[in-house]
Amino acid sequence: MLRNNQVVRFMLGKESFGINIGNVQEIINIPEITKIPDTPQFLEGVINLRGKILSVIDLRKRLNFDATHKDKKNRILVTEIDGRVIGLIVDEVSEVVKINPDSIEPTPEMINSSGVEYISGVGKLDDRIILLLDFEKILSNEDMNKVLGPKIDIDNDNTVLNQQVKEGGL
Has residue 146 got a pLDDT over 80? Predict the structure, then answer.
């Protein structure tokens, strides 16, 4: 579940969240974001990250929080989800913490909202609670295709397309 039991802890409003450190490639300041017309509301746009175009999602909007308040503490978590690199805007990145697996509990059964599916567990760290997000569930395949287009993998001799593309057609 957690690589080395380590998570990158970040904030959305007053809530503390964590993502497996293995999913985070880097943390960057927010550069100028280019808006893309007719895209899902949570897609802020794209950025140029050292010559590569990267889709950027406002995690607050994706999780149905109020929109991100622009501030110097805002960051982009450059993450890899299902083999695709995506930027996620968060309010603030706090720290990298180790969470003992015995300190992680399942999401309480009483919580019955659409957003609970994104929570893989609740981590207890001293007197703090960290909601552990399952980033692979943050974007469903349908959402991922809206944001990035279908995933295409071509083998070494460029003749065979990934089964996912074959099923969806070209």
Answer: no
Q: CA of 43: how far to CAs of 18, 34, 46, 98, 144, in Å?
A: 21, 11, 8, 30, 10
CATH assignment of 3-168? 2.40.50.180
Return the higher-pLDDT residue of 22 and 161.
22
Compute the CA torsion angle 24, 26, 28, 30 (nearest 10 deg): -40
Model pTM above 0.90:
no
Per-residue pLDDT band for 63 (boundaries 50, 70, 90) equals: confident
User: What are the residue boundaries of the structural domains of the chain, listed by start?
Assistant: 3-168
Alpha-carbon distance of 72 to 149, in angstroms, equals 31
Q: Which residues contact 94 (CB under 8 A, 6 or more apart)?
A: 9, 10, 11, 16
Cα of first residue to Cα of last residue in the chain, in angstroms, is 35
Residue with tokens 């904030």: 11
Residue 104's nearest CA partner among 121, 126, 127 is 121
